[in-house]
Write a structure and sequence with these properties.
Elements lengths: L1 H8 L12 E5 L5 E6 L8 H17 L4 H5 L15
Antiparallel strand pairs: 1-2
């Protein structure tokens, strides 16, 4: 929850008219699988961003991706630096 609050702070003053929101998705082992925050109106909300990050990381880890998938990522997707993904 602390990490979600830290991420939410990144959206303060830029997420209006929406609230500042952060989201952290954990895998079944309790490791971070995706995270995101809401920036700017009409851009994906924190939960959608976190799910996109988790999906991208899962596809990479499972080897289920095309070369172009890694270079073309939505502008609002921020891939976190995760210890187990480094």
């Amino acid at each position: 929850m602390q990490r979600a609050l830290e991420l939410a702070r990144r959206g303060v003053a830029v997420s209006s008219p929406n609230p500042a929101v952060g989201c952290v998705i954990l895998d079944c082992a309790g490791q971070v699988a995706g995270e995101g925050w809401h920036e700017y109106d009409l851009v994906d909300h924190a939960e959608v961003v976190a799910l996109k990050v988790a999906q991208t990381l899962a596809r990479v880890l499972l080897g289920n991706f095309e070369r172009d998938d890694l270079g073309v990522v939505d502008q609002d997707v921020r891939v976190p630096t995760l210890p187990w993904a480094a």
